[in-house]
Amino acid sequence: MTVDLLTLSIALNLANVLQCTALIGLALANRGRAGLVWWAAGMGVLAFGLLITTLRDVADVPLVVHAVSNALVGGGMLLLYHGVERFFGDRGHLRRLLLIWLLIWLLILIANLLLASTGDMPPLRRILFSVVVAICSLLIGLRFLRESRPDFHSLILFLAIVFFANGVFFALRGIASATEENWLVVSPPWQTATYLISIATTTLWTFGLILLVNRELVIEQRDALQQLEQIFVAQPDAVLLSRLTDGVFVKVNRSFTTISGYSAEEVLGKDGLTLNIWRSLEDRRRWIELMRRDGYCVGVEFQFRRRDGELRTCLLSSQTVMIRGVPHAISIIHDITGRKQIEEALRRSDARYRLIAENATDVIWLLDTQTARFTFFSPSVSKLIGYSATEALALSFTDFLTPDSARYVQASLNYMLHEWDGDDLIAAPPWTAEIDLLHRDGHIVHAEIVSSFVRDEEGRLVVLGVARDITVRKQAEIELRLARQQAEAANRAKSAFLANVSHELRTPLHAVLGFAQLLGRDSNLTATQREYLDIINRSGEHLLKLINDVLDLAKIEAGRYTYTAAPLDVRQLIADLQTLFRPWAEAKQLRFTVTCAPEIPPVIVSDEAKVRQILINLLSNAIKFTHHGMVQLRVELAQSSRLLFVVEDTGVGISPFDQPHLFRPFFQGQQAAPDATGAGLGLSISYEVARLMGGDLTVYSEGVGCGARFTLALPLQTPSATIVALPEKTPALQAVRLRAGQPIYRMLVADDQPASALLLVTLLHRLGFVVQSVADGQAALDVWRVWQPHMIWLDVRMPRVDGLAVARQIRDTCMQTPGLLRPFIVAMSAHVFGDAPSSVLEAGCDDFIVKPFRESDVVRLIEQHLQVQFEYAEPAAFTMPVAAIDEQGYHAEWRQALLQAAREANFRRLQALAAQIESDRPDDARQLHQWIETFDYQAIMVWAETLADVQPPSRVVS
């Protein structure tokens, strides 16, 4: 049977043209869809390659045409493969495919060249062609099988089978060509099958690719509908679909049911009139007119009535759509009730702020930073500068500022605008300044402005400020400053007065107490003489205490009173107080108790001297003002970690009128007796000292005759792990002379007060020193240069050259002259107010001593600086009183001897006096021995003085 190859070739080429046209149309209809352009290009290249192949089979063509046709067929198949990859979302490997195609083309070209050199071998060319088509078809079929989309499963399998069938056929064709016995004979069945298979496979895969795209379009449309449905349902605004012909609701979303209060079943099949959702029928009519005329509406505001009757303000936007030829309206209802409420609140707020701005006493203003012109003034500007708000807006800010204020404001504004950007200016804290304004009538108004940078409604940077008239305040500040200056001047005058008074009082008192101490060293004095000396000492000590109290109070008021915190044994302190005050209380037949809570720490950190001073003052007042009953000292721990010292008595009490004034200086209560001693400073100083230590002193009394309770509250502070050892009490022995073998030391006393100089010279002579005395600073310098003393006692205030100038000159001279003896310099002064100690040390002195001083203070300084050793006094022989006790009680002579021995810290004499009363008063003797063993001479003196009390004292707060 004869095969018409021409007819088959024409049919194949026509089919390829139709397939290529179909794929091009598909690509044009689905622009942007990946892979379709590559399919069309691949099919076009493949069709062109097959066209050349058919020409090769029906006519003789050059060798290169064979190579080109095979290369085009292979390239077209590879482009189809790349299109499949891109369609399924892969990036594809175009460069790799291009390299493979070039390699195939080179192999085909080389093979054809070899065949041309050896003779025409058509079967080999057919084998090569078949292999290329088979491999490319199988690759495309495998790529389809790799895709696992459930929606495309059948189409993918169909296309894979088509390409596999094409690949298998061409593989068999290649095998058949290789097994033919006569290489020069063309097998008509294979050629016919080739054409038919090519037409069938290309048509099938073109059809399959078109179906694949259509299937994807269907899936995308389905997904889009699902997404639209989801958007419709999930839309936060109410969405509904209704027929325009009768207004019946066809579909509503969940938000519509929420805003309306109806369920979907209650809405569908009904119209808005039936559901009564329109508050105004006029709104409904206007909406229908817009839809009929324009086919849409946007943002139509109307009142929506819910099922429960609540009215909501909404915006309605609708669009006409045709569904199956019937006009429908898809509408979106946006609830703006909240926004309308906010707008109403803003309107009310704006009205409220406008009311505030129009009635505020301060002036509110806005300044445009670009034009430097005011854009707003509150009406109160007329009260500030005399111009109305309208008149002020026509002025520049420099028109109603004084020249200095105008320059200051202009410079500040320019600096801020040029150095900072707008956002930094807005975030910056408000700018506050005091300026001077020019009133319309010409007088100056002092004003305070507070301003901030903000943006107005147009986004421009403006200054929002408030101006306040502070003329009255400025005048008050001037008066206050003047009053403060006057008060400071008065305070300085008071300090100078107290300093002078202190110096003038302490200087003679120094001589009185000093010579009394020197006379007390004489063991030949009679008991009467010692009693007179005791009176002098007690009177002097009382006067010194009064001076110290006044100075302490002045220091507290001036803020110069300090305290030193150190470890304090609380139980030892109250034991000392118990020992000190029990004899006095028992002498008045009072019950005196001291208790300490067990939770109190054994050691705290505080100023022991000041705590003792306060408690002695409180206990002294308590015993003094209590004539029967009890006095109690309790130490407790408050919940707020504060230590409480409570002194309670059953004495005369304090009236409610006196209690608020009790801690004022020099205050004497109504219960004070006219003959009682005390200056009324004790409680005032105690109160201030307690406050200085971070604590408080309070009083409670139900009234006169009901007793009183004073509470000292101190912060509880315990020492660190390494506790400083508490100082031990040592007996105050009296130095008599230098110990033998000591060098001879020269002492220079410089004091313009003869009595003070004589006192110190006498004491130093008795101790064994060589002493010279001068009366002014210049003489001290002259003697120092010639005599070179080891120690100089310098009075600070002297004529010609004062003590501090002398100290500086000696210090400078010693520094400039190596080998010169550097004396130890002790400054003396009765001036203890101010910073005297620090100033004398800065001047070059080695130490400082306050007049009046005790012998022990002088001895201590000599031992400290010269490192000398003294011999201390043995018990002086004295005449023991004949009897200590008779039927009237203790003898006055025995009591005076006990007082004198305690003052001299004479250990053996005190033991002898205590032994005299062991048989008659064993309890008192035992107490005396305890005080003597613990060197508590103060307790002995207090007890001895109480032995003479016969009448209870009247209450005087001190």
UniProtKB/TrEMBL annotation:
Main location: membrane
Keyword Transcription: no
Residue ranges that the Swiss-Prot or TrEMBL entry lists as coiled coil: none
InterPro entries reported in the protein's UniProt record: CheY-like_superfamily, HATPase_C_sf, HATPase_dom, His_kinase_dom, HisK_dim/P_dom, HisK_dim/P_sf, PAC, PAS
Entries under Gene3D superfamilies matching the protein: 1.10.287.130, 3.40.50.2300, Histidine kinase-like ATPase, C-terminal domain (3.30.565.10), PAS domain (3.30.450.20)
UniProt domain PAC: residue ranges: 298-348, 431-482
Any one GO molecular-function label of the UniProt entry: ATP binding
Catalytic activity field: ATP + protein L-histidine = ADP + protein N-phospho-L-histidine
Subcellular location: Membrane
Residue ranges constituting the PAS domain according to the UniProt record: 246-273, 349-420
Enzyme class: transferase
Protein name as it appears in the record: histidine kinase
Lineage: Bacteria, Bacillati, Chloroflexota, Chloroflexia, Chloroflexales
